[in-house]
Amino acid sequence: MLPYIFAEKKGIHIIDLNKTSDALQEVAAAMKQIARSGKKIMFVGTKKQAKEIVTDCAKRVNMPYSTERWLGGMLTNFNTVRKSVKKMQSIDKMLADGSAESLTKKERLQLQRDRDKMDKVLGGIAQLGRVPAALFIIDIGHEHIALSEAKKLGITTFGIVDTNCDPNKVDFAIPGNDDATKSIAIITQYVTAAIAEGLAERQAAKDEEAETDNTPDENEQRAARLQAEAESEGGGKSGGRGRSGGPASGARRRTPGGGGQRKPGGR
Q1: Could you tell me the domains of the chain?
Q2: pTM for the whole thing?
Q3: What pLDDT is stored for residue 235 in this prediction?
Q4: Is the pLDDT of residue 239 over 90?
Q5: Which end of the chain has fewer CB atoms within 10 angstroms, the N or the C?
């Protein structure tokens, strides 16, 4: 952490905020690109100071999160964890549609306890269908299990790194105080805003693509409508000419052969 330390005062290391600002901009750009591509970024913060902040920010951008005890194998053994999530969802369905009413009161209470216990640990990843593309970790020293699993699977890692941690353990390090609630809130909200911007750009691109796909159909319909109007107008005009020209043409035909004018000297 020596390159990120500005000074030392009474045994306390002071982090260079210029380095923190540069790292934040780099991390925000990378996260924005990941969010724009439609991939998931998982927030990990099981420290007491970070739980509420991480939960609020992750829910704001609809990203998975883990704020309770990190389950060993949550990433490396994701299929098994996913089965537990499906079990929790099946219990929710039973409680919602009334099928649990056939159980005894004791069984229903036990079912509710099991559901609450699973929701506490797995509620943040209930909508996660596959392994996330990146991890945002509040304290890489405290979340060393999550970091090691991400490294094993080749998942991109972002993390707040304090002076007591090694910044080389993560792909994108943000030098900062990972113990102060205010510091955690500022950094987490900054990267959340970048993710939200990436998601907004992705939605705008989808809308533009949908409009582009609909444009040829609209042009074809407009061309067909104009052609039909032109044909109807052309048919009406030709019909009018035929009716008005009929008698006149008949009169012209009678003039040569009808004898209306007699030849000189004839009887």
Answers
A1: 2-75+131-197 (3.40.50.10490), 76-116 (1.10.287)
A2: 0.74
A3: 60
A4: no
A5: C
